[in-house]
Amino acid sequence: MSRRIAAAAALLSLLEPAAAWSKEKPIPTNRIFLVGDRAGWVETKLEARPQDLVTIRAGSQVCFSGGSEESCVRAEGWPRATYAASWPSDAAACDDPFPEWSHGAVVAVIGETPVLVGKQTSVSGHEGAVRVGINDCSFDGELGNEGQFSVVVVVENPGAKAARSGRELIDAALEAMGGKAIRAVESLATRADCTAPDGVSFTTEVKSIFPDRTLFKQSSEAGSAEWLLSAEKAWRIDRELGQRKPDKKAVRFVRGHEFHAMLFELDERFSAHTVPVETEDDEPRDEPQAASADAPLQAASDCLRVEMLDAYGAPAAVCLDPESYLPVRLSYQPAGKKKEPTIEMELESWTEIDGVQYLETFTLRHGDAGFTYDFVEILPNSVERAQFREVSEKTLRDIRKRLKKEAKGEAEDDAEDGEEAEDGEESEQEEPSDPGLNRRAGTGRSDLTRG
Fold it and tell me: What is the pTM of this model?
């Protein structure tokens, strides 16, 4: 995680312009950090002054008590009033840094002043280095944590002259897509008919339980590929063979295909920043960076462009319609491949369901290759948690043994049928063998599918 933070800080230092034009009115500083899976504070490298406004937001979830599903909490943490009774082993193991605040909540320290963050907080009047962490004391062993909170830290001077900042534009985009109604969407299942550059058709299916569980599948006539994502872990699934292989590199790949989640979580997945722009009267002002005529995303007068960074420090950008504030373009880096061309999405049409605007059609460009996506199914709050039940290795071994045993039984039956056929006409008049073995073999596979 330290490497990611270092890379993000180095990249942001290149993207953020010097504030020599107004030392007393610096532009906002906005960065993303990951906390929750290890002890200690995360140093943000940000300094606050008494006149600065420090805003901290947190998203995703963390599961404490060894990663138990029942212990999963959002950034607000587990209420202190019921923590000891609900998790006596955890409570007895050690004392949280701030025992009066919820267990597992996102917290911060500005200088020497502790701050309860939860989902979001804004404070001023404090001076010193900004550090973020989680209100927990056990990070390893049976009581360790799984998952990470994505934490955005913004330090700004509210008195600075500014046009509409990148953060304000992101808030406007979220409001245009549904605002509070988006928070009512706890799960989402989508299916899209897609076309590749060579004209080949394929299907993309995404089933998500927010904030961090996803089943992703792409299918064509040539076959299919499927992954299961849970927090920061991914598995490649082969349901026919009853196999589930860890695939760490697939985490960012699958996240990059959660198209609707990326849009609904712009404020959690990305960190927006702004740059000073010289006006005709040479007075600097703070506003989102505009794309030039030859930029990858064309954004002249028809688009409000906000430069961003993802949680790994890679550059990204979103372009908004100046009237509706709905996103019209989104660009981001492929999964961990900095040398590859940026992925660019042209968002073409939206459909409304229960007050929420869902992306319906778009074109995805990766270098010279273009893909089209047409969502034919968009089903909010329809995903069953049981679909994400992880199959244990013992269960997988049992299924494979049963399949081998049944396959061996079929082979023995075939051998017996061959011997009887050689006995003469009488064997030829016998009824065909009962296909029950085939049905049972199929049942074995469907059991794994349900798991």
Answer: 0.52
